[in-house]
Amino acid sequence: MTTVDVGDAFELVFTTATGATVLRSWYDPDDLPVVELEPIAEYPPGTGKYPYVFQATRPGIWTARVTVSGSATAVEEHYVYARPVPAEKPLAVIGQVTEQYGTLTPAQEGLTSSLLRTASKLVRSRFPRIDAQIASGLLDPEVVALVVTNMVLRVLRNPGGLRSETIGPFSKSFDTGDAAGLLIITKEEQPLLVPTNSGAGAFAIGSIMMQPGLAPPPTGLTRGW
C-alpha cells in the first residue's frame, strides 16, 4: 500500500509485456469510479512500462486497478491510503521551488508538495519556536522558506537517491528526473533558523541552543580539556 497526502498527485508504473493493452481504473474510498477503463500508453515505447498519474482528493483508501489484455486478461490492484493534510501550513510553497528547479510534472508537483510539508515539519521539530519568531519579526519568513526550499531541491536533484519501489507487478515512482535523496538541514543552514539577537554568548550544537550559566562549570579539569 502506498501512503500519500490528500491532493498530491503521484505516479504508478505498471510493468507487463510490451505491446499489451493496458486500462486503468481509479476508485475512491467508497469504491465509486473516478476513472474507469481508461487506456494507458506504453512509455518509453518497447519497455513494457505503463505509467499513469493518480490523485487522491479526500482521505481514505483508494484503489488503482489495472486491466491487461493480450493472450489472456489479468486484473491487478494497488491500494493507496490518502492521509489528511496537516493543519499547519508549510513554511515554503511550490512556486519557490519552481523558481530554482523549473517546470514540474504533475507527479513531481505531488512529490514536492509532500516534501515541503515534511521539510517544514522537520524544521519545526528542530526549532519549535520558529513560527512565533517569524510572527514577531525575529526571523525573515523568506529566509526560512529558502532553507525549506533548499531541503526539497536537494531531494529533487540528488542523482544517487532512491527513485522507485517495486510492489508485485507495480513499481512506484515519483518521476523526479535525476532525483531523490534525504531531507536534511545542513550546518550552514541552521544559523538561518535562529534569530541573530537570540542572546550574546549563545552557541549552537546542531539545532539545540546552549546558553552559558545553565549548569555549574566543570572543576578539576586538566589543561587542554
Question: Would you kindly provide a brief summary of this structure?
Answer:
With 225 residues, this protein is an alpha+beta fold.
Describe the structure.
This protein has 225 residues and is α+β, with helices and mostly antiparallel strands. The protein has 2 domains: 82 residues, Immunoglobulins (Immunoglobulin-like), CATH 2.60.40.10; 80 residues, no CATH class. A hairpin with a 3-residue loop joins strand 6 and strand 7. Helix 2 crosses helix 4. The longest helix has 21 residues. It is elongated.
Top CATH class of the largest domain: Mainly Beta
Q: Which sequence of SSEs, written as H and E, runs from N to C? A: EEEEEEEHHHHEEEE
Number of domains: 2
Q: How would you characterize the largest beta sheet?
A: 5 strands, mixed
**Structural class, from secondary structure content?**
alpha+beta
Q: What average pLDDT do the residues reach?
A: 80
- Strand percentage: 25-35%
- Give the proportion of residues in helices: 10-25%
Q: Which regions have little confidence, pLDDT < 50, spanning 5+ residues?
A: 174-180, 199-219, 221-225
Rg over CA atoms, rounded to whole Å, is 23 Å
Output the CATH homologous superfamily of the largest domain: Immunoglobulins
- Note the gap between the termini: 53 Å
From the spread of the alpha carbons, the general shape counts as elongated
Architecture blueprint of SSEs:
Elements: E1 2-5, E2 9-15, E3 21-27, E4 33-40, E5 49-55, E6 60-69, E7 73-83, H1 94-101, H2 106-126, H3 130-135, H4 141-157, E8 164-167, E9 170-173, E10 203-205, E11 208-210
Parallel strand pairs: 1-7
Antiparallel strand pairs: 2-5, 2-9, 3-4, 3-6, 6-7, 8-9, 10-11
Helix pairs in contact: 1-4, 2-4
